[in-house]
Design brief:
Largest sheet: 3 strands, antiparallel
Strand order of the largest sheet: 7-8-9
Helix content: 40-55%
Shape: elongated
Structural class: alpha+beta
Strand content: 15-25%
């Protein structure tokens, strides 16, 4: 476990006084995220609130999204933040810091960057169906490719098809809380982007069944067994609420 010293430059409080953190804190300790968030609150949040009161933003740890009305304003805020971070001993990430044009049906100009990822969601232009039934273009979030890749890696690590010593209820007891967490978080927006991933879980369950029950090797027999299972116990696996087993 490494030990680091908090940045020495003083931070300015709203009342004009200064705050200087000089105590050592081990990385990975319980207090480290608290101190880091406190530091960013003064270094980033309070600075933006004071210098650009009309600019809204969201921040989680050291990742943030700042909403600007024009490209000119965005570049002004970027320059101010870059200077602010330098003053407190930090710097903006040269690759991750970028200006994104939120293109949709009412913002039609072309721009090099029209998407970004924040907290596991990919924000980009997406087709959406209006209440009138007509299709339109909106700037919407959905589960990011990186999050899908990470979840897929987790599912592969389960090696469901190899656990033939377990029954379906035991498998469901193990994976349902995890899958439900993914659905509850990533399914809040554009949940259809999760469907192919959830269907992959069914693929592993099907492989498990064919490996456990030799009689199910025949396609027609397996299909009848699988359809009957889903019909009898539609709530056995949490993701069946969205995929109905397929």
């Amino acid at each position: 476990m490494r030990s680091v010293q908090s940045p020495r430059p003083a931070l300015t409080r709203p009342d004009g006084s200064t705050l200087r953190i000089t105590q050592h804190c081990s990385l990975g300790s319980a207090v480290s995220p608290v101190l880091a968030n406190l530091f960013m609150h003064y270094a980033f949040d309070m600075f933006l609130t004071r210098e650009f009161p009309r600019v809204e933003f969201e921040r989680y740890a050291d990742d943030a999204v700042v909403h600007c009305e024009t490209e000119e304003q965005a570049r002004q805020v970027w320059a101010a933040l870059a200077e602010r971070m330098e003053n407190v001993g930090l710097r903006l990430h040269p690759d991750k810091t970028k200006i994104v044009y939120c293109r949709d049906a009412s913002r039609r100009r072309s721009y090099p960057i029209t998407s970004f990822t924040f907290l596991g969601y990919a924000f980009r232009p997406r087709k959406t169906k209006l209440r009138s039934g007509a299709m339109s273009l909106s700037f919407l979030p959905a589960v990011s490719p990186e999050a899908l890749k990470a979840m897929g890696h987790q599912v592969r690590k389960w090696r469901i098809h190899m656990h033939t010593g377990l029954d379906l209820k035991q498998i469901a007891t193990y994976i349902n809380p995890i899958v439900a967490g993914w659905m509850n978080y990533y399914g809040r927006f554009y949940r259809s982007q999760l469907y192919p991933f959830l269907a992959r879980i069914n693929t592993y369950l099907m492989r498990w069944a064919r490996k456990k029950y030799k009689r199910l090797h025949a396609f027609k027999r397996f299909k009848a067994w699988w359809t009957g299972l889903v019909d009898r116990e539609p709530g056995l696996f949490r993701h069946w609420a969205w995929t109905r087993g397929f």
